[in-house]
């Protein structure tokens, strides 16, 4: 157990050291160049990262229960933001009640008790049919397919996909027993570092937007720089995982690409809804969904790659 604690401790020492250096650089830039929009945005992001890392450290120190509760709360907030963008009718309210107070708790209870076989199909099969049926029972057929699809999508992304992050704690990897919390940290660090570095490289060198009509700030230069730098960071963390250094690089590459796809799809939703952010809960980062968009796509892919190749 001491070995596990030492690994986690070193990871957090590295994280907080990085944040401390970033905070000092942000203060220096602000003093030299003044509070420009880019520098102000950067400093706001750094402050938000302090809060997020501290909350993550507290949850992880509690163990499996703390991690599951943390992600259940994140899912609840993310689902609320997605539903807020969805035009709902009075007849949808009971179905939404089931989403927030029945489907979400059951999904995370299944994760907590490590019942994989039911956790993997509960939402895509049973909740999918239940929510659809309850909305039909309201008798409101106006834009029924559109309303149903938006609610189903929100539940899949905010609850089902995000629940795969703490579900990493249930994977029985031989020779890695009791250390699965490292896998969750590995995933979160690589995905979030990719987001940050894509922003940094995009601001410094970005000239060619990948999808100009969708997100002009997502550039080829930012994409390449962010993906490669985050993959290298993941490779450097191989010692805290069951992977070899080259496998850690390849897995980091896979989840950063998945994370980029998640960010792109969420940007399309925001563009379609005419909003800049999903919410304002996190200063400098918008809403919870703005911060979890990459993780939504990366978590289930990372989980299943590990399940197929390491178990």
UniProtKB/TrEMBL annotation:
EC numbers, comma separated: 2.7.-.-, 2.7.7.41
Q: Which GO terms describe its molecular function?
A: phosphatidate cytidylyltransferase activity
- GO annotation (BP), single: peptidoglycan-based cell wall biogenesis
Keyword set, alphabetical order: Membrane, Nucleotidyltransferase, Transferase, Transmembrane, Transmembrane helix
Q: Where are the transmembrane segments?
A: 7-29, 49-74, 151-171, 183-201, 222-240, 246-269
Which GO terms of the cellular component aspect does the record hold? plasma membrane
Q: What is this protein called?
A: Phosphatidate cytidylyltransferase
């Amino acid at each position: 157990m001491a070995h596990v604690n030492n690994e986690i401790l070193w990871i957090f020492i590295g994280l907080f050291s990085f944040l401390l250096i970033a905070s000092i650089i942000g203060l220096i830039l602000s003093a030299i160049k003044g509070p420009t929009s880019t520098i102000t945005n950067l400093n706001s992001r750094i402050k938000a990262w302090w809060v997020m890392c501290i909350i993550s450290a507290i949850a992880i120190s509690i163990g499996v229960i703390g991690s599951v509760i943390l992600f259940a709360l994140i899912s609840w907030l993310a689902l609320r933001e997605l539903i807020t963008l969805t035009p709902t009718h009075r007849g949808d309210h009971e179905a939404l009640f089931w989403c927030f107070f029945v489907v979400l708790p059951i999904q995370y209870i299944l994760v907590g008790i490590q019942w994989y076989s039911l956790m993997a199909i509960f939402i895509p099969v049973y909740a999918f049919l239940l929510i659809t049926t309850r909305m039909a029972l309201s008798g409101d057929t106006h834009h029924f397919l559109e309303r149903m699809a938006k609610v189903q999508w929100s539940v899949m992304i905010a609850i089902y996909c995000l629940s795969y992050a703490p579900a990493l704690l249930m994977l029985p990897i031989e020779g890695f027993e009791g250390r699965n919390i490292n896998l969750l940290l590995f995933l979160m660090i690589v995905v979030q570092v990719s987001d940050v570095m894509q922003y940094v490289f995009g601001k410094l060198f970005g000239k060619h937007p990948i999808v100009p009509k969708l997100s002009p700030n997502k550039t080829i230069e930012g994409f390449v720089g962010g993906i490669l730098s985050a993959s290298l960071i993941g490779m450097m963390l191989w010692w805290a995982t069951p992977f070899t250094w080259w496998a850690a690089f390849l897995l980091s590459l896979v989840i950063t690409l998945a994370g980029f796809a998640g960010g792109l799809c969420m940007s399309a939703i925001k563009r379609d809804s005419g909003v800049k952010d999903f919410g304002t809960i996190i200063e400098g980062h918008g809403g919870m969904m703005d911060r979890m968009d990459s993780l939504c796509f990366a978590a289930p892919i990372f989980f299943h790659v590990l399940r197929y190749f390491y178990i």
